[in-house]
Automatic annotation (TrEMBL):
PROSITE patterns: FE_B12_PBP
Keywords: Signal
Gene3D superfamilies named in the record: Nitrogenase molybdenum iron protein domain (3.40.50.1980)
Protein family (similarity comment): Belongs to the bacterial solute-binding protein 8 family.
Domain Fe/B12 periplasmic-binding: 50-312
Name of the protein: ABC transporter substrate-binding protein
Keyword Signal: yes
Signal sequence bounds: 1-27
Keyword Signal on entry: yes
Origin species: Caldicellulosiruptor changbaiensis
GO biological process, one term: cellular response to iron ion
């Protein structure tokens, strides 16, 4: 009787292990199908070996997931030192492409093309007509959830599920580490992301809004009900009077540095009574971390939290 029970127990454990195998499997079974940013079902029949990416966020994900020998092209932004987190990794891939390079992309004979969610419909249609391979449209990266889903989708399409899981773990670990530090704040600071060359900010429904949330600060533009990437006025900045104002690190003006823009902002008579000016809290954060919409965005969470509450990070 005891032996019989033991055999039954072993059989049950084996059956349970078999049922759980798909949950813990790190291998991708091809063909694989995922939903892209247009809601289309994209099927890849076998592990792609000639991948081409046309967006910086997918450049950054792929270069941390896939061997460069399997990537034949990256976006033209991969080498941008102001915004790209993968300048050094990108050196291992020769090709550079934009969505304007229709004939060049077709001639490259890729077996998987990844295009940005904002691609022009006419260009997308031309690629669909000229390419025989799957075309995956990236998700709108306006939230951390979408960024994580993008990583999952790309890890499945490329057959690199384990590496995709590692990137998501990296994101979760970094966020959790910051959250532990800011968890018991009695009073959170208000932040304004201010892109001076466009007179714009980030409101709700943006990844930058979520950077603020996870960093333990309050996005003042979102409190005012703004969404997306709206333009703002001096009067609004004065009315909001944020604790911290974040200026982009990239100037894009050969005659002025970002630091000069900060000093110009602080010397503006209209802004002299702002809390951020009085407390020397008009700051520059690395665009590569704050503007990115790949897994590197969690570095922006860390950067902002540390700038807002330096005493928590000693």
């Amino acid at each position: 009787m005891k032996m019989s029970r033991r055999i039954v127990a072993i059989v049950v454990l084996i059956a349970l292990a078999i049922s759980l195998m798909p949950l813990y499997s790190h291998a991708a079974d091809f063909p694989i199908t995922v939903k892209d940013g247009k809601g289309n079902s994209i099927t890849v029949k076998q592990k792609p070996q000639r991948i081409l990416s046309l967006a910086l966020q997918t450049d950054e994900i792929l270069l941390n997931m896939v061997s460069p020998s399997r990537i034949i092209g990256l976006s033209i932004f991969a080498d941008d030192k102001n915004n790209s987190n993968v300048v050094n990794l990108a050196k291992n891939v020769k090709g550079r492409y934009s969505s304007n390079d229709i004939e060049k992309i077709i001639a490259a004979k890729p077996d998987l093309v990844i295009v940005p969610y904002y691609i022009d419909k006419a260009k997308y249609d031309l690629l669909k007509k000229g390419l025989k391979c799957p075309i995956y449209v990236s998700l709108n990266p306006n939230s951390f959830a979408n960024i994580k889903q993008e990583i999952i989708n790309l890890s499945r399409l490329t057959g690199e599920i384990q590496k995709g899981q590692a990137l998501i773990k990296y994101m979760n670990d970094k966020i959790n580490a910051v959250q532990k530090k800011v968890k018991y704040l009695r009073k959170k600071k208000y932040v304004l992301f201010y892109t001076y060359y466009f007179n714009s900010t980030y409101g709700k429904n943006t990844a930058q809004h979520e950077i603020a949330k996870y960093a333990g600060v309050i996005n003042i533009a979102a409190v005012a009900g703004l969404k997306g990437w709206p333009t703002i006025t001096k009067e609004q900045i004065l009315e909001w009077d944020p604790d911290i104002i974040v200026i982009p690190s990239a100037s894009y003006n050969p005659k002025k540095t970002s630091q000069q823009y900060v000093e110009e902002f602080k010397k503006d008579p209209a802004f002299k009574n702002l809390k951020a000016v009085k407390n020397n809290a008009v700051i520059i954060l690395d665009d590569r971390h704050v503007q990115t919409v790949s897994h590197y965005i969690v570095e922006g969470v860390y950067d902002l939290a540390k700038a807002a509450y330096p005493y928590l990070f000693k």
